Automatic annotation (TrEMBL):
<feature type="domain" description="Response regulatory">
    <location>
        <begin position="2"/>
        <end position="116"/>
    </location>
</feature>
<dbReference type="InterPro" id="IPR001867">
    <property type="entry name" value="OmpR/PhoB-type_DNA-bd"/>
</dbReference>
<dbReference type="InterPro" id="IPR039420">
    <property type="entry name" value="WalR-like"/>
</dbReference>
<dbReference type="InterPro" id="IPR001789">
    <property type="entry name" value="Sig_transdc_resp-reg_receiver"/>
</dbReference>
<dbReference type="InterPro" id="IPR036388">
    <property type="entry name" value="WH-like_DNA-bd_sf"/>
</dbReference>
<protein>
    <submittedName>
        <fullName>Response regulator transcription factor</fullName>
    </submittedName>
</protein>
<dbReference type="InterPro" id="IPR011006">
    <property type="entry name" value="CheY-like_superfamily"/>
</dbReference>
<dbReference type="Pfam" id="PF00072">
    <property type="entry name" value="Response_reg"/>
</dbReference>
<feature type="DNA-binding region" description="OmpR/PhoB-type">
    <location>
        <begin position="124"/>
        <end position="217"/>
    </location>
</feature>
<keyword id="KW-0597">Phosphoprotein</keyword>
<keyword id="KW-0238">DNA-binding</keyword>
<feature type="modified residue" description="4-aspartylphosphate">
    <location>
        <position position="51"/>
    </location>
</feature>
<dbReference type="Pfam" id="PF00486">
    <property type="entry name" value="Trans_reg_C"/>
</dbReference>
<feature type="domain" description="OmpR/PhoB-type">
    <location>
        <begin position="124"/>
        <end position="217"/>
    </location>
</feature>
């Protein structure tokens, strides 16, 4: 899942991004509304965590513009304006969820994952295929009942493959969903991650390489 965090308080923005990355999510950060719209114009996000009181372009205007353009991401407003009227106003603009500050990070994670499930085709809570079971909420992977320890990136790549439900996923799609905007698109990081992931999942191999196209589980 790819997330955009839009927050002008840089320490808070970076802390949120770091926490989300620890949950095996790909995260980009924008520190103002103009930067948010610029990134959304280039990248496809599943969820946008959006502060309302932003410089350059107000968060409400960012939300309204994305909704007007039918941008596919789900939007959660994260703001100090937490009164009932503020929540009603934020949701009426087009936000999908509203979480006032201060907040519990565990709740933010749960809400981001819930919105991510709504951003795409509905998926079961636990993804299963070819003897592999992946539980995003618990960050747990089992192969034929045996627990498999994965890094955050390996977990994210496996989640993308399982979500494809047997369809081929290209390296470009994996970079889009499992890494952030700072990754070099010409790097071999996908191939290296796939090698270590296959090794950890064990035999018989379950991830197929489709030459010139991508990977399939």
């Amino acid at each position: 899942m790819r997330v955009l965090v839009v927050e002008d308080e840089r320490v808070l923005a970076d802390a949120i991004a770091t926490g989300l990355r620890r949950e095996a999510l790909a995260v980009d950060v924008a520190y103002d509304g103009a930067g948010a719209l610029e990134r959304a114009g280039v990248n496809e996000y599943d969820v946008i965590v959006l502060d309302r009181d932003l410089p350059k372009v107000h968060g409400d205007d960012v939300c309204a513009e994305l909704v007007a353009k039918r941008y596919p991401a789900r939007i959660i407003m994260l703001t100090a304006a937490g009164e009932l009227d503020d929540k009603v106003e934020g949701l009426s603009i087009g936000a999908d969820d509203y979480l006032p500050k201060p907040f519990a990070f565990a709740e933010l994670i749960a809400r981001v994952r819930a919105l991510g499930r709504r951003a795409a085709a509905p998926l079961p809570p636990v993804l299963e295929r070819a003897g592999i079971a992946l539980d995003p909420a618990r960050r747990e992977v089992l192969r034929d009942g045996r627990e498999v320890e994965l890094t955050r990136k390996e977990f994210a790549v496996l989640e993308v493959l399982l979500s494809a439900d047997g369809a081929v996923v290209s390296s470009e799609q994996l970079l889009e969903k499992a890494w952030d905007e700072h990754i070099d698109p010409f790097t071999n990081v996908v191939r290296v991650t796939m090698m270590t992931l296959r090794k950890k999942l064990g035999d018989p191999p379950v991830i197929e390489t489709v030459p010139g196209v991508g990977y399939r589980l």
